[in-house]
Description:
Blueprint: E1 4-5, H1 6-12, H2 18-26, E2 30-32, E3 35-36, E4 43-44, E5 51-53, E6 56-57, E7 65-70, H3 92-95, E8 100-101, E9 110-116, H4 119-126, E10 134-141, H5 146-154, E11 168-173, E12 177-184, H6 191-198, E13 203-211, E14 214-215, E15 225-227, H7 230-237
Helix pairs in contact: 1-2
The structure holds uracil.
Amino acid sequence: MExxxxxxxxxxxxxxxxxxxxxxxxxxxxxxxxxxxxSGQDKADPESAVISVNGEPxxxxxxxxxxxxxxxxxxxxxxxxxxxxxxxxxxxxxxxxGLFPVGRLDKDTEGLLLLTxxxxxxxxLLSPKHHVDKVYFTRVDxxxxxxxxxxxxxxMTLDDGLRCLPAGLEILTAGEESRxxxxxxxxxxxxxxxxxxxxGKPVKYLERVKMGNLExxxxxxxxxxxxLTEEELEKLRTF
Length: 239
Ligand code: URA
């Protein structure tokens, strides 16, 4: 792999900003092949050099995977003149890495959104061939019933003729307002809202809580992000 600037390399892990990386280098806490790095501009090949920070391996990865707890009000796009995008929630050093959202959540939908620059795995996760489960928590107007659950399980045909695969509807509470977990094996435009709307139970709130084997970290505040751990990436790869 091509050599890269050390300050950029450190920042690309998402653990430090570029400024923090420069400070660590200045303090002599960054070693490349056992030798202290002198300047952020020094270069190294992250795949062959042994780089450590404060005595710990850098943990460089070729691709970046970010878990974002998306708040309402942000578009799942990299650029959009109509308003802020999920990229605006990331720091500049991550914004510069060519990340894109793995699938879309509506502007008002919250919760688990992955961003990456690894096209291959991202497309595999989204491919209709693979049927990766996506789980949503929802609050709807009206009382969800066993008939609604059965309609989901049978596979609904929407008013415009769109046929949906069988889906899960786990009713958590049923009343004037009901709460449920919806499991989809596909991701058609506004799908959860359209399915529940057609059953006369319009969605008031929607949050994605799981994608494949990966759950939204309950410790991750709305609007916050973090880099996926090695174990989480492994879970994703074995969707
Ligand atoms: N289904 C929807 O209706 N909206 C989303 O954002 C995701 C799934």
